[in-house]
Design brief:
Pseudouridine synthase, 10-stranded mixed sheet, 8 helices, 326 residues, 5-stranded antiparallel sheet, alpha+beta, 3 domains, single chain
Length: 326
Amino acid sequence: MRVDVVQNALRIRVDGRSAGQAIDTLLTTQLFLADGFVRSLFSAGRVRAGSVAAVPGDILRQGQAVWLQGGVEEEEPIPISLGSVSPLDVLYEDDHALIANKPAGVLVYPGTPEDTDTLLQQVASYYAETGQVLRVRHAHRLDRDTTGAVLYAKHEYAARSFDHLLQRGQVHRRYLAVVIGRLPMQQGVIDQPIGRDRHVAGRYRVSATGRPARTHYSVLAVAEVNQQPVSLVECTLETGRTHQIRVHLASLGCPVVGDALYGAPATDRALRGERLRAAVQIAHGHALHAVELRFWHPYEGEWVSQSAPLPQDFVQLLALTGLPPV
């Protein structure tokens, strides 16, 4: 199966593997589109077999072209002035997906009218500059001060496919964090539900009444800074709750360096050492970086993996604490 963007449509070339299937089966099992959405496409006449409107039970033939009309060329409904936002660091791009490298201090999505240089606006500006008439559709988010790889869908069909892949665990995110303290084991799983902190707006906590959350971690290195252990930790997400890694690590007494929301008491104690104080000042925000994004590409039929280089602040933090470079 080959899938191409042709103006405001997807063209699917049926291969031997797909021949003999019903069209609706192809759309649900290979493009990972939800049943209800597929039914709506047929009802609206947006599915065509060649030049003829298709019905769900139509059987596919090898070499046949199936078209999904609309849902590609959709201009983002926000005003973008070229040159008014920071340039976008693109790690990966094809007709269906884009991976951006988010810097610290940048929101993925604006929360107020004053948020004018968010990643959404940077992606929208990039699309405009490159002649792509597309809406901005992020598949997931990173916190304002977390850096690294963010996945975007470039059309409606990819957005729905990525939602499905996230639910099935076929979008893998690997993070690096520098934390204060030493984790209880060299590697493990933090399986603790997370809910809102009712006493502090915008803060989350481990809570028995929260939503399930699982974080896998592995300690890569530990250094001593003024008799204070500092650890370099690799984390992968099984779920994607807000602030999940920060909350889970802090719940074990190992907050991320520079995390004022979850690590203030431990950070204050650790700051008795001049080197660690300087290290926290270097970290613009907190020392958490989404270093790798790996996802199953439904249109290429293969895994795509992309790494995001460490920010210079993170590299300097490793050097200052005596942790090994990665």
